[in-house]
Specification:
- By secondary structure, the chain is of the alpha/beta class.
- It has 12 helices and 10 strands.
- It folds into 2 domains: 240 residues, Alpha-Beta Complex (2-enoyl-CoA Hydratase, Chain A, domain 1), CATH 3.90.226; 47 residues, Orthogonal Bundle (Lyase 2-enoyl-coa Hydratase, Chain  A, domain 2), CATH 1.10.12.10.
- 38% of the residues are buried.
- The protein binds ligand LH2PNOKW.
- Ligand LH2PNOKW binds next to helix 4 and strand 6.
- GO terms for molecular function: delta(3,5)-delta(2,4)-dienoyl-CoA isomerase activity.
Length: 300
């Protein structure tokens, strides 16, 4: 059952298992579907405008991700796009209207204007950083266009897979912007080829799935949208079968290790596991492995 979330409160998602009843009939640009037990599909749902982001959509997206982060019935998440494209970036007509209003406000003193612009950028940054901060692994399932803000979004996810027809571009320099909501800050940690990332960021040129795969932006190419749907669900369901204590500890540690020294991150994981190894998940998994059975785990 497809659920349309009309600006639900964080706590309303966090405390309630996202079961099968629609919580609102009003139209929403982000939909959430429980795809399998513990597996949720968050869909960008503004197909007429190629899922381009407006401020409202960014806010709604963050609420949904923050809600799932706290929801014990969610163990893995797929982010995909409805319609022709995954995401053609920011809505060039509506997405910058708040910032342009501030810039053009002649009554506002320049230093205060700067502060307002900074706050605005920070708010949008937080919407995609929510993906990275969410303890549940997030798979970006990309088809067709993934431009500008679309790349900001996917680089904050854990795993990226795409259809053969996917088309990427770090498009910001073409609209007079240094990308500021995550791509430039994350892509080198994702891709690991500085020359290539500079080439595509500085030229805004399009590149396809084969090139994205060759340089490590995506880990898998599938033939079409049907396979994208199947493969992303399969992957998310496989993750959701594992101990949530182990999976979430793995995401936290990989993120920590990426941004810290090896010594610091070894210290992090031993401190993390001081408590997490005490979980029954360790014993359950070990017994199940010895008995060639599948373990099940309590919600966290
Ligand atoms: C502080 C803020 C920081 C955020 C920064 C973010 C930056 C970015 O995201 S940069 C990237 C911006 N995006 C673009 O430049 C893409 C612009 N769109 C296109 O080039 C083409 O639409 C595209 C090649 C993606 C697809 O072309 P196609 O012919 O297949 O479709 P269209 O007929 O052009 O589009 C269908 C309808 O969608 C509307 N639309 C597409 N992109 C945008 C957009 N970015 N903003 C607003 N609207 C967009 C397009 O107008 C069509 O609508 P309609 O005319 O009503 O049918």
């Amino acid at each position: 059952m497809l659920r349309r979330l009309a600006s639900p409160s964080i706590s309303s998602i966090g405390k309630r298992a996202l079961s099968t009843t629609p919580i609102s009939k009003s139209s929403s640009e982000i939909t959430v579907k429980e795809q399998r037990p513990y597996v949720y599909n968050v869909k960008l749902n503004r197909p007429a405008k190629l899922n381009t982001f407006t401020m409202e959509m960014w806010r709604e997206f963050k609420k949904v991700i923050d809600g799932l982060a706290e929801d014990p019935k969610c163990r893995s998440i797929i982010v995909s796009g409805e319609g022709k494209s995954f995401c053609a970036g920011i809505d060039l007509a509506a997405g910058l209207s708040d910032i342009i209003r501030v810039i053009q406000d002649d009554s506002m003193e320049i230093g205060r204007k700067g502060r307002a612009v900074r706050r605005f950028i920070g708010e949008i940054q937080d919407c995609f950083t929510a993906l990275e901060k969410c303890p549940k692994p997030i798979i970006a399932a990309v088809h067709s266009h993934c431009l500008g803000a679309g790349i900001d979004l996917i680089t904050a996810c854990d795993i990226r897979i795409a259809t053969q027809d996917a088309n990427f571009s770090i498009r910001e320099v073409d609209i007079g912007l240094a990308a500021d909501i995550g791509t430039l800050n994350r892509i080198q940690k994702v891709v690991g080829n500085d020359s290539w990332t500079r080439e595509v960021a500085l030229t805004a040129r399009d590149f396809g799935a084969d090139e994205a795969h060759r340089y490590g932006l995506i880990s898998r190419i599938v033939d079409d949208r049907h396979s994208l749907n199947e493969k992303s669900i399969e992957l998310a369901a496989r993750i959701a079968e594992k101990s949530p204590i182990a999976v979430q500890g793995t995401k936290e540690t990989l993120n920590y290790a990426r941004d810290h020294s090896t010594d610091d991150s070894l210290n992090f994981i031993r401190t993390w596991n001081m408590s997490q190894l005490l979980s029954t998940d360790l014993m359950n998994s070990t017994m199940a492995a010895m008995n060639k059975k599948k373990a099940t785990y309590e919600d966290v």
